[in-house]
């Protein structure tokens, strides 16, 4: 597997004896499997600088490598990667808020809220202490 335009070079080389060499840039991000003459190559965790034209070619002895069209890989920044998970967080937050509101409504319905907000009448005892009303009474 070769990169041909932006950063030309060898990405993966597999010999007929199944020995392989992988470019250091793709060492932990490349996987391949081989069955007979068929090979499947998978690139993982692609980054923007991995954008290039990739060509699979077979080495032919004593012959120059023939030009091939290959596959153009264009990697764009993945800024929309969390859209689905973000909506999940928003939906979960909304559900928790609604459940909390329902719990508060049920609690306030059971409790007599009016009695907590009414003005309490103070316990007042009024006694007439004027001279006329005390006349003839004994105070102990």
TrEMBL record:
The keyword Plastid does not apply. It comes from the Eukaryota. InterPro entries: CD7, Ig-like_dom_sf, Ig-like_fold. Keywords: Membrane, Transmembrane, Transmembrane helix. GO terms for molecular function: signaling receptor activity. The chain crosses the membrane at residues 87-111. The keyword Transmembrane helix applies. One of its GO terms (biological process) is adaptive immune response. One of its GO terms (cellular component) is membrane. This is CD7 protein. It comes from Dicrurus megarhynchus. The gene is Cd7.
């Amino acid at each position: 597997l070769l990169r041909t335009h932006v950063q030309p070079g060898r990405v993966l080389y597999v010999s007929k004896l199944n020995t392989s060499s992988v470019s250091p840039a793709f060492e932990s991000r490349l996987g391949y499997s081989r069955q007979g003459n068929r090979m499947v190559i998978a690139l993982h965790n692609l980054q923007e600088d991995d954008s290039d034209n990739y060509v699979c070619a077979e080495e032919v002895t004593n012959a120059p490598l023939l030009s091939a069209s290959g596959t153009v890989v264009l990697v764009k920044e993945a800024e929309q990667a969390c859209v689905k998970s973000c909506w999940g967080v928003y939906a979960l937050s909304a559900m928790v808020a609604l459940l909390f509101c329902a719990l508060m409504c049920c609690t306030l319905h059971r409790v007599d809220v009016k009695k907590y907000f009414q003005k309490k009448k103070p316990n007042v005892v009024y006694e007439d202490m004027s001279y006329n009303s005390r006349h003839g009474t004994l105070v102990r």
